[in-house]
What we know:
Elements: H1 15-23, E1 30-38, H2 58-75, E2 79-88, E3 97-106, H3 109-116, H4 119-122, H5 126-131, E4 132-140
Antiparallel strand pairs: 1-3, 1-4, 2-3
Amino acid sequence: MTSTTQFVRYLEPTQQSGRAFVMRRMQGKVVMLNLLRLRETADYSGNPELAPENPISGAEAFDRYIQHTLPFLRESGGDLLFLGSGGPLLIGPENERWDLAMMVEQSSADSFLAFADNAEYLAGIGHRTAAIEDARLLPLTQIEAAG
Length: 147
């Protein structure tokens, strides 16, 4: 008897996780910590209108997403704080890897939600979908140090 393990991919927030984010009522600046695993070859099947003439890598598709997104992010009061290459974990499952880590700052949770709902931004989100095999997104707020 063979056992199959189904790989669950996380690409978008669920309705439940979106509701939980809103219910947190985060105050002040919000930093979104993204861990991203990229596809070897970008998959534009869900957004053929954005597909380049010839196949490109997930990394190239993600770069197109960043170039498309930055003007809308900055216009909404946000900014890209960090984008760096990853690899295998130092602490964690040995077979788990994240190709990119990204930190995006928004002035508030409300400005993040407004940015994420911007129709012009959403017109290019297919580059992200084509690029990413799996992702994690952790909203963070700063803790004031005691002392």
